């Protein structure tokens, strides 16, 4: 397959979808670029993305690859890693992409230091402006870097997730809300949704 880069128009559309440009979104754009070159774009459920983070990068993967929660071909694992596994159902192949530490930034570099100060609401007006500049510089660096400088890529041997299933909805006896059958629990002979089940367990 010929190597494809994401067009400027599509990059702009991705930024508009996410709401702003940032290094995290750029990581997602480049990860999606790599996946598209391996497997193409998911028109329906052909490509499954398993993401190990809930950072900005996931929006780029959703938008560019066509992987969404609603179709069941976007799966979130809350591991806090900039790691993405892409499965091609058509080809029966999978790859895992992990962002290299230097792609995101060293803990001592200026961008990370300024971000930390921002979280503590300690930025001066000059530092706020410098943070915007540093974010733009890092984003540009990610977008222009060779792909092998950004990611470690290896085959994934994890099973390809099955397609989303439509299951019956059951009524929770506690709150009265319809809940997918696979997300209910039984307690003292009653069917409960997960939130009511957890609340009831705490009362026991």
Description of the molecule:
The protein has 2 domains: 8-155, 60s Ribosomal Protein L30, Chain: A (2-Layer Sandwich), CATH 3.30.1330; 169-203, 2-Layer Sandwich (Wheat Germ Agglutinin (Isolectin 2), domain 1). It is built from 8 helices and 9 strands. The protein has helices at 8-18, 23-39, 57-65, 101-104, 110-119, 125-144, 147-150, 194-203, and strands spanning 47-51, 74-76, 83-88, 93-99, 151-155, 169-171, 178-180, 184-187, 190-193. The strands form 3 sheets. Strands 2-1-3-4-5 form a 5-stranded mixed sheet. Helix 1 (8-18) crosses helix 3 and helix 2 packs parallel to helix 3 (57-65). The longest helix has 20 residues, at 125-144.
Q: Could you give a quick summary of the protein structure above?
A:
This protein has 8 helices and 9 strands. The chain is of the alpha+beta class. It has 2 domains: 148 residues, 60s Ribosomal Protein L30, Chain: A (2-Layer Sandwich); 35 residues, Wheat Germ Agglutinin (Isolectin 2), domain 1 (2-Layer Sandwich).
Output the number of helix runs: 8
| Class of secondary structure makeup | alpha+beta
Give the tally of β-strands. 9
User: What's the rounded overall pLDDT mean?
Assistant: 90
**CATH first level of the largest domain: which class?**
Alpha Beta
What is the third-level CATH name, the topology of the largest domain? 60s Ribosomal Protein L30, Chain: A
**CATH architecture tag of the largest domain:** 2-Layer Sandwich
Assess the beta-strand content as a share of residues.
15-25%
Tally of individual domains: 2
